Amino acid sequence: MEQEPLFREAKGGVVTARVFAAASEATGKAEAKVLDPLRKGNAMTDAEIAKGSHARHKHLTRQVPVGCAACGNRRPGWFCSLGSAVLADLELVTSTITLPAQASVFTQGEDARCLYLICSGYLKLTAGRHEDRQMIVRVAGPGSMLGLYAVLSHGVYEVSAESLTEAQLRPVERERFLGFLRSHKEAQMRAVQCICQEYRFALQDACRIALTETVAARLGRLLLELANQIGEHLEGGGFRFPLLLTHEEMASMVCTTRETVTRTLGQFRKDGWISIEDSLVTLHQPEQLQTLL
Questions:
Q1: Can you tell me the mean pLDDT for 134-147?
Q2: Cα 46 versus chain centre, distance
Q3: What kind of fold does domain 11-202 have according to CATH?
Q4: Pick from 138, 107, 112: which is nearest to 125 by CA?
Q5: Does residue 246 carry a pLDDT above 50?
Q6: Considering only the top CATH level, what class is 212-290?
Q7: Sheet with 160-163, side-by-side order of all strands
Q8: How far apart are CA 95 and CA 150, in angstroms?
Q9: Are residues 72 and 4 in contact, defined by beta-carbon separation less than 8 angstroms?
């Protein structure tokens, strides 16, 4: 018997909140075949979805899922770098969505009903309200898991998430994820590792702001953090990563002005420590940036 597709395009190719809820219900039926049948999540109603995340779900577009085991973006240590059997169960409790750039994923203070695995693309995490002062916490890329602590603690999202580029995500509803963890000890350990990584990122932010005296040192530290979090290693010890933040956004992360960031980056380039070309930042001499700290 032919099954109805999980996602159906509405007018203009946009997937509605009702269709997203239907997709979640369908994946839940598949999950029941494998995971503990005693686990029962409280499904979101259409009214609840529209109230908390209407602006977000209107961006969701139909996407044919790519199997996690065949994904070329997976790296050792990521949550999705699990054993094949565990990955198969993870795919049963998730669906795949694609967001355009500048789309909201969740907002600080919302009830954490889902967590999100980033398959591709980049998102920025911010703290504070948009109408007031806002601070960029970090840039998250493929392999990152967003909303993990909030989901495990049955709390609210502590930050807001917005896509910087087109991004492919795998959302997992809270109760389904908790049931998945109860069934797989390997996933439990990986979740603990992810929370430890979030602690390390928060510590890096605090040290960059509070313990680094000069703007050059704070900016150098930020470049090194971005290189390690979303960059790739190059032969010779260098790094390369996409330039996703404006100078003004970088200034907010190092507590200075946009003009000072532009001037300092220009000095780094003049000294041959970095280069910026085709929206890519290359750290040619990361050890020189390290000496500023």
A1: 90
A2: 25
A3: Jelly Rolls (2.60.120)
A4: 138
A5: yes
A6: mainly alpha
A7: 104-106, 160-163, 123-127, 135-140
A8: 20
A9: no
